[in-house]
Write a structure and sequence with these properties.
7-stranded parallel β-sheet, NAD(P)-bd_dom_sf, alpha/beta, globular, Rossmann fold, 53% helix, two-stranded parallel ribbon, single chain
Length: 321
């Protein structure tokens, strides 16, 4: 698929970040777009931007949907087909996700499953819902967003990232399985797994809102847990630090993740679209993702040791602590 004009693209998680940038770039190329998101305010902002920037005649629709709930995904699908008057879609970007460092050992089961269900079942439910309509197109492509945490299940020693990593490993494995499945059963439908490194998005900020743990609403118990994790990971004495200072620290970290990334959301979206044009089933987003992929392949047994982090900081310029 070299040309997106006149096609219909469905993008989950279209409210911010890579989802918003995908919508902007596709609309600019004359592609009709349907986005969904769970944060309506963000989604409406994307809709407004695309309507202002896009050429006349291109249609973009916005749909509120929690991708972890299949009934909402099915409603989303029906709305898309109805509002766009189509019996097929050409592009499905399973992009929605949240990041949360939930421990399997001492974290809340509810929080763990909330992260896993959005990041994995959000992909699965949308793939199931839209697959017949991809097959119905003369050319179609599904793009599933995994992560570097889909082949490296960590943020470094002292971190707990099991729910997110497990889900992203599932997305990667599912997509790889679809490569052969589609070649046998629907060869005109292509599939790609994209694995972003550090991309400048608001995922760290939005994740708290979506999971019900917005920084400003942290309970005393949550702040105790935050202090414990920061102390374990960074070795910082927080005895003299107030709760408000802890909240400000977390907020600043989320903003720094968005603003100081080596790859912008717009650059990442452009890489994804080029991957579609090139029919590549595996797309690493960012130089840091390339470095991390190489380091894990060179010495997988070392991947979860401090020595590995030293190499990663040096070679990928990751300022991880």
């Amino acid at each position: 698929m070299k040309d997106f004009a006149g096609k219909l693209a469905v993008i989950t998680g279209g409210g911010t970040g890579m989802g918003r940038e995908l919508a902007r770039q596709l609309v600019a190329e004359g592609c009709d777009v349907a986005i969904c998101d769970v944060i309506d305010e963000n989604m409406q902002e994307t809709l407004k931007i695309c309507q202002q920037e896009g050429p006349q005649g291109v249609r973009i629709t916005a749909h509120k949907c929690d991708v972890s709930k299949e009934d909402q995904v099915l409603r989303f699908r029906d709305e898309v087909l109805d509002l766009h008057g189509r019996d097929h879609i050409n592009l499905l970007f399973n992009n929605a996700g949240i990041g949360a460092g939930v421990s399997f050992v001492d974290g809340s089961r509810e929080d763990w499953e909330r992260t896993f269900n959005i990041c994995w079942y959000g992909v699965y439910y949308n793939a199931r819902a839209f697959m017949p309509y991809l097959v119905a197109a003369t050319e179609a492509h599904m793009i599933n967003t995994s992560s570097v945490n889909g082949f490296w299940a960590s943020l470094g020693p002292g971190s707990t990232h099991s729910a997110y990593s497990a889900a992203k490993f599932a997305v990667k494995g599912f997509t790889e399985a679809l490569v052969s499945d589609l070649r046998v059963n629907a060869p005109h439908v292509k599939v790609s797994v994209v694995m972003p490194g550090h991309i400048g998005t608001s995922i760290a900020i939005n994740s708290g809102k979506i999971s019900g743990h917005a920084v400003e609403d942290f309970t005393t118990a949550e702040l105790v847990g935050v202090r414990k994790r920061i102390t374990a990971r960074m070795g910082i004495d927080l005895t003299e630090v107030t709760d408000d200072q802890i909240k400000a620290m977390i907020k600043a970290q989320g903003e720094a993740f968005r603003d100081n990334a080596p790859t912008t959301a717009g650059e990442a979206a452009a890489m994804m679209l080029q991957g579609v044009r090139d029919e590549r089933w595996r797309v690493l987003l960012g130089d840091d993702a390339q470095v991390l992929d190489r380091l894990v392949r060179e010495n997988p047994e070392e991947a979860y040791e401090e020595s590995f982090m030293v190499k990663l900081r040096e070679q990928a310029n990751w300022g991880l602590s």
